[in-house]
């Protein structure tokens, strides 16, 4: 068993092979895809990683697989859906097909609508053991017994309610920002996903003390979020430069700044 709360530098299939069966509560990761398969000069084995993740996932455990498709010769590759179907063939449930919407997507010049999202496939080993969903206030509840009045004193059909409902499966985040994290730490990974994305999924699908894994750790976003939320973590990354960045971020102390 690998020592917990560390980033390991090496091939993720080899490192996953050192873990016992059914030891991981949650996986939150974003693998390189299509033309990015030679990741930082390194290749990776999707089928090997998928099999190993199925092996190490606990019953009731969840995998959040954030991925998108490249466009080649005018057609999207569809590799994201192919990967989702392969996880199903391995025996996992496709519990939810969620969307990571980019609030500040980059405009491109082409003959279709702007590409502003990635998939967040949620796979589970049976029924998820934990589900603590994000919620949002109910603005227009179905119960119309209590009415609010508009500026003219007329009933407008809305209800002043403190009730919440579960959020939709479309999560929107701002991206980019010069690759500077929430504490002002600049890192040089080419494609980090937002810290809040990792944190939202960790809070949803795991409990404090659970073990969270990222087999494509990159600059350590998942590991950092897991640590801050009181989870144990393991990060696997083949690129030594990214491993060094992740280790510095995880070791970073949270500093509170007074408002000026």
Q: Topology of this structure?
A:
Layout: E1 6-9, H1 12-16, E2 24-29, H2 46-56, E3 57-67, E4 71-72, E5 75-76, H3 79-89, E6 93-102, E7 117-124, E8 135-137, E9 164-166, E10 170-173, H4 195-205, E11 211-214, H5 221-228, E12 232-237, H6 240-251
Parallel strand pairs: 1-12, 2-3, 2-11, 6-10, 11-12
Antiparallel strand pairs: 3-7, 4-5, 6-7, 8-9
Word description of this protein:
The protein has helices spanning 12-16, 46-56, 79-89, 195-205, 221-228, 240-251, and strands at 6-9, 24-29, 57-67, 71-72, 75-76, 93-102, 117-124, 135-137, 164-166, 170-173, 211-214, 232-237. The protein is an alpha/beta fold and 260 residues long. It has one domain: Rossmann fold (3-Layer(aba) Sandwich), CATH 3.40.50.150. The chain starts with 5 loop residues before the first strand and ends in a 9-residue tail after the last helix.
């Amino acid at each position: 068993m690998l020592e917990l709360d560390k980033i390991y530098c090496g091939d993720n299939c080899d490192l996953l092979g050192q873990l016992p069966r059914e030891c991981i509560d949650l996986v939150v990761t974003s693998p390189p895809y299509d033309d990015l398969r030679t990741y930082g000069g390194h290749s990776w084995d999707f089928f090997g990683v998928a099999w190993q993740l199925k092996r190490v996932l606990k019953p009731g455990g969840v995998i959040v697989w954030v991925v998108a498709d490249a466009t080649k010769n005018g057609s999207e590759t569809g590799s994201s859906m192919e990967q989702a179907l392969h996880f199903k063939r391995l025996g996992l449930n496709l519990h939810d097909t969620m969307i990571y919407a980019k609030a500040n997507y980059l405009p491109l010049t082409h003959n279709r609508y702007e590409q502003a999202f990635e998939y967040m496939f949620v796979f589970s080993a049976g029924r998820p053991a934990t589900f603590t969903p994000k919620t949002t206030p109910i603005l227009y509840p179905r119960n119309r017994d209590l009415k609010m009045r508009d500026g003219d004193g007329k009933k407008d059909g809305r209800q002043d309610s403190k009730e919440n409902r579960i959020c939709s499966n479309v999560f929107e985040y701002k991206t980019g920002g010069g690759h500077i994290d929430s504490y002002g730490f600049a890192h040089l990974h080419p494609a980090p996903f937002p810290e809040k994305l990792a944190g939202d999924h960790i809070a949803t699908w795991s409990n404090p003390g659970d073990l969270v894994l990222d087999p494509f750790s990159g600059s350590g976003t998942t590991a950092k979020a897991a640590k801050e939320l009181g989870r144990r973590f393991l990060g696997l990354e083949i690129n030594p430069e990214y491993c060094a960045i992740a280790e510095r971020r995880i070791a970073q102390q949270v500093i509170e700044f007074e408002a000026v």
